[in-house]
Amino acid sequence: MSLLPGTRTLSHWRVSGAVAACLTLVSALAGCGPGSTPQPNDSTPPEVASNVPAAGDDNVWVGQPIAVTFSEPLDPGTVNDTSVQLAGSGSVDIAKTLALTGNTLTVTPVSTLDLPQTLTLSLTAGIQDLAGNPLEPATWSWTVPSWLRLGDDPVLTYTGDSFVYWPHLALDTHDRPVVAGNREESPQALLRRWDGTAWVDIPPPNGADGSGYIHDLAMAVDDPVVAWSGRFEDGPDSDFYVSRWDGEAWTLLGGGLKVGDVIPEEAALAVTSSGLPIIAFSQKAMGGNSPADLLVKRWTGTTWQALGAKLDVNDGAAIQDIDIVLDGDDDPIVSWGERFFDVSFVKAWDPTLQTWQLLGGAISTSEQAPAMVVRAGGELVAADNASDQTIRLFRYAAPNWVPLGPALRRDESRTTTDPSLIENAAGEVMVGWSEIGAAGSSVEVATLRAGAWVFTEDAITISAPSGLSNVSLGLLDGATPVVVYTLFRPHDIGFEFDNETRFRQHNE
Asked: What is the mean pLDDT of the chain?
């Protein structure tokens, strides 16, 4: 069918109208290029619909993507280093890459950030939509700290007339932490597990009357295992127990562990590569600061097996505290301090001789148990609170303890305490500890590298009279340090105080 002279098809009018609209909107010429969709009647400027991190965020992971979503598509040619500006503390420009996908802009720093750092993102009116409408300029800031809080902060706390103390940390095979601690009044035990998005309470393995004090925490693959003491309705006396959590309930492994009519004192726990716990514990005949015996038992899967006789060297000593690690054959090595004698020891179980072997005599003149780690190559390393208020590391080279690295302390005006040892994926020994001084205290982490101590960029600090202590160190992916510690906060009147257990992940 022919058309009359001078007539036009509908499609011709649509194309011509779009072209005319583009030609009459001078400010929107950038939006009329190949592949663009002209917007002849669009006079609404684009807006920031959402942004991550948000303004004022103060606990941002250093790897958190910086993402801005806009209310409409943008002209890609207007999104550049001039219209998008990223600055750090002191208004220092930070090199970056820009990626515009759909309505979302992702900004990525191209180099490692020094922490802590306050970042500021500025979007100028140079950013335009497809019709050439300029963005209303927007600027916001957030903080990337040296140490990240994970979820609830504090992790363990109590608001009654009590306090929380002695935290323990363990990581499962997915690097999800479990934190355990105690409060002063019954029921005592507290446990929480990170599920990837939040801290989830785990009901404690208390006795029937609510008693239950957690001495140590370990992981059997992904199941938390705790050494605890308490009492049940069928017995008036407190005893040591070991229980395993399967995600739904606690399984009590065997029965009570103490030997004779005695009082439970201290305990430390380790779990073998096959998931069988080994517990070192001290017991005493009378209350108070009295002499105690140190024993070790291994769970066979069906029963508890005693490993040799008692370990303590001086019969009149009170066992101050205990640490336990396993060697490459899953045999235990135990350290402890002996009060009244101001000395500490390390013994290793000899499965051939079925006896405990003293390693190198007394390791120090401290009554605290040296923290220990067995390195991947089998070398045993111990950390001791030395009499000069520093932390000293030793490696065992039979038959002696040999100093390893220089004395460790970050602030010479402070006293070091509570060392916790671990080896990273690079084969380096790392130490977490607290330092206490008149002006305040700190939680520190350092790595022994090429014979010298390399400290994390910043410590976790607090001013006196509050204090930080009881550090437990772990590693994510074998590299990133995480710590759980106690925050001590005194009241204004008398000797009352609050304690909280806090968890931090180093921001790297």
From this structure: 88
Exposure string for 134-164, b = 16+ CB within 10 A, e = fewer: bbeebebebbbbbbbebeeebbbbbeeeebb
Identity of residue 488: F
Which pLDDT band, with edges at 50, 70 and 90, does 81 fall under? very high
Cβ contact 38:31 at 8 Å: yes
Return the pLDDT at 231. Answer: 80
Q: Annotate 228-288 with DSSP letters as a single string.
A: EEE--TT-SS-EEEEEEE-SS-EEE-SS----SS-EEEEEEEEE-TTS-EEEEEEEESSSS
* Burial class of residue 378, CB neighbours in 10 A (0-12, 13-18, 19+): exposed
Joined together, the tokens standing for residue 137 give 């300029």
pTM reported for the whole predicted model: 0.84
The pair of structure tokens assigned to 301 is 């899967």
Question: What's the rounded Cα separation, in Å, for the pair 489 and 389?
Answer: 23
Nearest to 498 by CA among 89, 63, 156: 156
Give the bridge partners for 443, in sequence order. Answer: 434, 460
Could you read off the pLDDT of 16-61 as tens digits, one per residue? Answer: 333 333 333 333 334 444 445 555 688 999 999 999 999 999 999 9
Strand 292-299 relative to strand 277-284: parallel, antiparallel, unpaired? antiparallel
For residues 107-120, one letter each, b for 16 or more C-beta atoms within 10 angstroms of the residue's C-beta and e for the rest, the string is: bebeeebebbbebb
Cis peptide before 399 (omega within 30 of 0): yes
Q: Quick: pLDDT tens for 413-470.
A: 999 999 999 999 999 999 999 999 999 999 999 999 999 999 998 899 999 988 999 9
Alpha carbon 473 to chain centroid, angstroms: 8
Dihedral sign, Cα of residue 383, residue 385, residue 388, residue 390: positive
Q: What is the side-by-side strand order in the sheet with 213-220? A: 213-220, 223-230, 239-245, 250-252
